[in-house]
Design goal:
This protein is an alpha/beta fold. It is built from 14 helices and 16 strands. Strands 4-5-3-2-6-7-9-8 form an eight-stranded mixed sheet. It has a two-stranded parallel ribbon with strand order 1-10. A two-stranded antiparallel ribbon has the order 11-12. The longest helix has 36 residues, at 270-305.
Length: 483
Amino acid sequence: MYQKGAKGWLKHFDFMLLDLICVQIAFVVAFQIRHGFVNPYSNRDYLTLAIITELADIISLIFISNLGNILKRGVYREFVAAFKNGCVVVALVLLYMFVVKESESYSRMSILLMGVVYVCLIFLVRCAWKRYLIVNMKKGKGKRLLVMTTAKIADDVISELKENNYAQYDIAGVIVLDKDLRGREVQEVPVVAGYDDASEYVRTAWVDEIYVDVRGAYDYAKPIIDSFVEAGITVHMCISSIVEAHGDKQIIQKVGKQTVVTTIMNYATPRQMMLKRLVDIAGGLVGSVFTLILTVFIGPVIYIKSPGPIFFTQERVGLNGKKFKMYKFRSMYLDAEERKKELMAQNTMSDSKMFKMDFDPRVIGNKILPDGTKHKGIGQYIRDFSIDEFPQFFNVLKGDLSLVGTRPPLVSEVEEYEMHHKTRLATKPGITGMWQVSGRSDITDFEEVVRLDTEYIENWSFGLDMKIVLKTIKVVLGREGSK
């Protein structure tokens, strides 16, 4: 799912968080300059004012769009933006003091000092943070952008993208359609594929977005572009490459200096994604506290029944193919992965792209008695009531997972994906999702899982996430065997 804006809402969220910290530092510094080294939060009136100041800063940042195009701003424009933001915050705080008619309880000099300190501080912090982001981009820590172009213009395309890389892309590779240049480099960027293997490369690689500039060769490249869109990958097409519109949803924007048509399955505004991330952080914090409490009770039981680590880490595939370590309470014996191959014949899913058993003997305590009776172990109860999922709240805090999304697949499962299956990777995976609340125990057709995940991505909204969260709670509490 595409996040509209320069590298989406993530940079805006980072800068917003820094602004909120800086305005509070400015609040404390101003108070102490005016009143001496005294804790302002010990005074109830000033504690209330500190909260109002934070709200004023949030209002200023969101509704005045003070963070728009922040990476493109020079030093002078950045200072002007910081000054405007400081003026708005001070004005809103003074307005609050006037409305509640308690201005005598506060020092107006402290508020004005706060504005001065805040403007200077946020100006320096924003400049430093932008510098940090640019350095990280040069180290390859930005979004992974794959470029598809032709041999004649490849040098110019890569050079231009590097020189105007405001979106902080890490240009991960080049696909050259009309000439076999695999193994070579274009402006120090490796040529990773040609016309024949472009789709196959994208099927297996971690690619966040694809930039297409194939001037004069659009019809030739169209089948490959179609396969990228089918896989749910965000595709930016340089307008000079095409005449007709392509795909179901398009956004006109810029990548570098070029105007492009961005084709996506769905997109979210920075505000929508910021709200989703804030809910993830709040849910992640609450879930992490419960996880620590559960560890005290569940941990010893797991260790006694199966000596070894209490937590289980497993490499999963996330947004656009990025791999990450996912945490769980260990509900299986230590040799579970080795025994999986022996049990593939009992897989209830329609193919090997997902694995599921009705009664898994690898689960701690699970036994099949001589008379055929199935005895559930502690590991099965941990799984039935989704207790094993709780450590994933740490992944939510890290940003690997969201509270709601698609199921994060195993690396071995993704290796067997066809191109359209990669649609599932077009959004951040989640602890719960459409499949989990749609009778997952009864769904054995992997294509149906893909259909549900695609439906979620195409129809995503914050309201849909909340509906899935409520359904998840109902499923977990309402019946056993929800996994």
